[in-house]
Target: Trm112p-domain-containing protein
Amino acid sequence: MVRLITHNLLACHVKDCNTNNFPLEFKDAQIELRETEFNPEFVRGIIPKLEWKALVDTARELGDTTLPLELPEMLDDDFLKNLHHVLLEIHVEDGVMICANCKHVYPISNGIPNMLLAEHEIG
Model:
């Protein structure tokens, strides 16, 4: 499933595409919201692994404006719950992800991204 926690780790891996290849841009994204149990320790622990600007920009692109542009120093429960929602409860079910650099299209169908590359695209 394409959740934003997963999306925040994905970059284009087409041969010679090594600049401006992250984050992949969503297009025609069909979103489904699915509640998951809030685990503040998990959310707090994942923060250092996130590319914050990419996460915020992607969330806004998908219509969620709950995250601040800058990572706050105070990680209160409201902030952690908003981050939990963005990372784990927004599911992209269908659509595509497109590399801003080489324009390669990664289709998403039934929540599963197809990240496979053709033989000539592998570096």
